[in-house]
Design goal:
It contains 19 helices and no strands. It has 694 residues and is mainly alpha-helical. Among the domains are: 171 residues, Actin-binding Protein, T-fimbrin, domain 1; 50 residues. Helix 3 runs parallel beside helix 7. One of its GO terms (molecular function) is tubulin binding.
């Protein structure tokens, strides 16, 4: 597992950043760049990665709190790869499929890339590791998704995940707003101090007031004045509310009068058939807006909101993640374009489509419908804005009824009214024309849809007879793809034209700059000659410098090798010295013990005799012989007891069986006596009840 191999180093890697991050808390590792890049083995890099993973996933039930020496290599690699998947680690495309194999082989570059990824954004990884178990999506097989219980559980899970996201955001906001609590505490302290000051002032004023004559009457008068002031403020507020209600009622009256005038004008200038046609057109337009335009706009807004919520729920992505996703999108677009071209080349000679003309007409009508709907929407918005302006002006007119226009002001007002009335009439005519055109287009759309349904049924029958069901749908999809490709080609052509214009502008600016820079270029030529002379001097001196540095480096390398050899000799001599010193100590201890044994046999030393008395034996030989004799006597006694037990074993077993039988007999007697006693008690109770009844 932990052998080293070399692969193409295409992923971002900076060993200096790894060394700096590991030297800081909580790791505090004094590793150099050379240690990480060359010196450490693959197993040591695995240990460092495991330590970083323990810090990121610091839960008590973390799966990373294991010993790598006892854990199988396959389990270690699988655990690290699963955790990297949670952290959204994305290696380069040529290494993505072989990441497990590289880790099992102990590839140093892969391990260093993983370590750089983990340490570069440590806090974001820690947050993502905390959120991942709660927000991970459970892969449920499609055959189980049809069950109602599983659907309810899945919905509950999504709801709980949404609640968790909201609470997590709220907690983060509270953590970020920790400074606001300190400010509130300061404000509370200030208000408490102000309160104390106000209480002191009130106490002083009370003392002054109590000294005045008739102070109770003055206090009563102040209380009544305060009550009257509060009533006055309440009355003013009520008057404001009533004035606002009056204004709202006047506005409603103006709107009602306006609608009445519109209805009267419509009745005067039109008959019932025109009103009926206008109502039909309005209903068609409203139906189109409600069934086609508004659902489309709502779906677009919903998609936009879903995308924004996804972006908000996702954790922060780095530039490398964006680059990888852009590469995937580019590859998918290229694959889609190739497939579309293949399908077009296959179905190029398959025959003409009978519905092509009708389909083009339907597309044109749909585009016209969308354009007219947009125009109607813009006109309606403009009409609403004009109505709002009119209401504002009428309200201002109601407020300033006393002002009467005279002379030139009146002429200006009349001219403005005329221009506005002409604009209004023109817009009204355009609106009516658009509504009629919309009705005609809707009718033609319905007719074409019916024709298309009939043709589709006939095409389906023909395809079924010829055994090529689905050919028409594929051809439609290919035509859509070709239309999109044509649109893309048009946009590319426009872009190329714009680029050509920009190139022309750039060429023109370059020519202008050239004309300006001619004098400067002449000066630069003279300076360039001086620079060449200086460069030759620099090259010569650089060669001298390089030769001196090379000689010094060779001398320093030889000296370093000698120093390493001397240090190794010193370490070997020191280890040999310590080993011999320890062996001398052991041999000295054994020699002292031998001398003590000889003294015990010889005798004559009073101090050693006192030591013998204290420990209770003369020599270790006597002690061990005494213990051996004691153990032999004890073994003899045990053998005798074993013989006695074997001799009495059968008789004792018989006696034990007899005692068990006696115990069973006694238990049966106890049970029978208990039953007899219970029966006598029941008889006595029954006789007592009979006597009571009598």
């Amino acid at each position: 597992m932990y052998s080293s191999s070399s692969l193409s180093e295409t992923e971002p890697l900076d060993t200096k950043v790894i060394a700096e991050k590991l030297s800081k808390p909580p790791f505090n590792k004094n590793y150099s760049v050379i240690d990480i890049h060359d010196k450490f083995t693959s197993f040591q890099l695995f240990e460092i990665i495991n330590e970083v993973l323990i810090y990121i996933d610091n839960s008590p039930t973390s799966v990373h709190r294991v010993n790598l020496r006892t854990e199988p290599p396959e389990n270690t690699v699988q655990r690290i790869v699963d955790f990297l998947y949670l952290l959204k680690y994305k290696p380069s495309i040529d290494r993505n499929a072989n990441l497990k194999a590289e880790l099992l082989d102990g590839d140093r570059h892969s391990l260093q890339c993983i370590l750089f990824f983990l340490l570069n954004q440590l806090e974001t990884h820690k947050k993502r590791a905390y959120l991942a178990p709660f927000l991970s999506v459970i892969d449920i097989p499609p055959e189980f998704l049809q069950d109602d219980v599983i659907q309810e559980l899945n919905a509950q899970l999504k709801e709980l995940q949404g609640q968790f996201i909201e609470t997590h955001k709220y907690v983060e906001q509270l953590r970020q707003s920790g400074n606001a609590t300190n400010e509130l505490k300061k404000e509370i302290q200030q208000t408490e101090e102000e309160k104390q000051q106000v209480l002191v002032k009130i106490a002083r004023l009370r003392k002054k007031v109590e000294k005045m004559p008739n102070h109770e009457q003055w206090l009563e008068a102040a209380r009544k004045l305060r009550i009257e002031q509060t009533e006055e403020t309440n009355i003013v507020e009520k008057m404001k509310e009533q004035n606002e209600q009056l204004k709202n009622a006047e506005q409603k009256l103006i709107e009602v009068r306006k609608t009445l005038k519109q209805v009267q004008n419509a009745n005067a200038t039109s008959n019932a058939e025109l009103l009926w046609q206008r109502m039909e057109e309005e209903t068609k337009m409203n139906r189109f807006m409600a069934t086609e335009n508004l659902p489309k706009a709502i779906s677009d807004k919903q998609k936009h909101i879903d995308n924004i919520t996804k972006i908000l729920n996702e954790t922060s992505t780095s530039e490398s993640d964006l680059q990888v996703s852009e590469m995937e999108i580019r590859d998918l677009n290229e694959a889609i374009a190739k497939l579309a071209e293949k399908k077009l080349s296959k179905n190029k000679n398959a025959g003409d489509d009978k519905l092509a003309l009708f389909r083009q007409q339907a597309n044109i009508i749909a585009l016209k419908k969308e354009g007219t709907a947009e125009k109607i929407h813009s006109l309606m918005e403009e009409l609403n804005q004009l109505n709002e302006e009119l209401e504002k002006k009428e309200g201002a007119k109601g407020e300033n009824e006393t002002k009467i226009l005279k002379g030139e002001d009146f002429k200006k007002y009349v001219s403005e009214l005329r221009t506005k009335s002409t604009v209004y009439k023109r817009k009204k005519v355009e609106l009516s024309e658009l509504t009629t055109e919309l009705g005609v287009i809707q009718r033609t759309d319905e007719i074409l849809k019916n024709h298309i349904k009939d043709f589709q049924d006939s095409i389906y029958k023909i395809e079924k007879e010829n055994g090529i069901i689905g050919y028409h749908e594929t051809q439609e999809s290919l035509e859509k793809v070709s239309e999109k490709k044509n649109e893309m080609d048009e946009t590319k052509g426009k872009a190329l034209n714009e680029i050509s214009l920009l190139v022309d502008k750039i060429v023109q600016t370059i020519n202008d700059k050239k004309a300006v820079l001619t004098s400067v270029i002449q000066e630069v030529r003279g300076l360039r000659a001086k620079a060449q002379d200086l460069e030759t001097d620099y090259i010569e001196k650089k060669k001298i410098y390089d030769t001196t540095i090379a000689s010094l480096e060779s001398d320093s390398c030889a000296l370093e090798q000698e120093v390493r050899g001397y240090r190794q000799d010193i370490m070997n001599d020191q280890s040999r010295y310590h080993y011999l010193n320890a062996m001398l100590n052991v041999s000295g201890i054994s020699l002292d013990r031998v001398l003590q044994e000889t003294k015990a046999y010889i005798g004559g030393d009073e101090k050693f005799e006192e030591v013998q008395k204290l420990r209770g034996f003369k020599s270790y030989r006597e002690l061990y012989t005494k213990k051996i004799t004691e153990q032999e006597n004890l073994g003899e006694m045990l053998r005798n007891t074993q013989k006695d037990v074997k001799a009495c074993h059968d008789a004792d077993m018989k006696q034990l069986a007899m005692f068990k039988n006696i115990k069973k007999l006694l238990d049966l007697k106890i049970e029978t006596n208990r039953k007899l006693l219970l029966g006598e008690k029941k008889n006595e109770e029954f006789e007592g009840q009979v006597k009571k009844k009598k």
